[in-house]
Amino acid sequence: MKNDDDFMRVALALARQAELSGEVPVGAIVVKDGAIIGCGSNAPISRHDPSAHAELLALREAAQHLGNYRLVGCELFVTLEPCVMCVGAMFHARIARVVFGASDFKTGACGSVLNLFAERRLNHHTEITAGVLAEECGQVLSNFFAARRARKRESDAAK
């Protein structure tokens, strides 16, 4: 039986794949009854698609797997706190539980900036588990952006 840490490690591996493609390193998986049924790595740059967040790609794959856009009883594991767009898709999919690693204090919609899942006027409520492997998830992102800033400084200095 896999636990939250094990599933988050799979999402972290997907985040690292995104990084190798030049994308912001975020990975996500959808789990039903202990089995992974959808995977996604950030791909908005390579796909020229602002909606190609890891969460949405994982939701799409899971929906295809189940043959239904409703993902009742599913859990979504993601390395970074989901944004408003992704939370909206999770509402429509009826995700039962969202587990995330690092908090996002700029766009997080699961408690850092907003908590859409706590909004009682909305028709679906999802359990949230925050901070699973948060340090490791955050470090992957910090390293990515530090390297990106260093490359920009080198480029600027060469001009």
Description:
Helices cover 43% and strands 19% of the residues. The chain has 159 residues and is of the alpha/beta class. A hairpin with a 2-residue loop joins strand 1 (27-32) and strand 2. The chain is globular, with a radius of gyration of 16 Å. The N and C termini lie far apart (55 Å). The model has no long low-confidence stretch (mean pLDDT 95).
Please supply descriptive tags for the structure shown above.
5 strands; 5-stranded mixed beta sheet; alpha/beta; 159 residues; single chain
Cα distance spanning the termini: 55 Å
Number of strands: 5
- Which strand order spans the largest sheet, edge to edge or round the barrel? 2-1-3-4-5
* Low-confidence segments: none
Strand content bin: 15-25%
User: What count of helical segments does DSSP give?
Assistant: 5
Order of helices and strands: HEEHHEHEEH
- Specify the structural class: alpha/beta
Give me the secondary-structure topology.
Elements (H helix, E strand, L loop, with lengths): L3 H17 L6 E6 L2 E7 L2 H4 L6 H13 L7 E7 L3 H10 L3 E6 L24 E4 L3 H25 L1
Helix pairs in contact: 1-5, 3-4
Summary, kept brief:
By secondary structure, this protein is an alpha/beta fold.
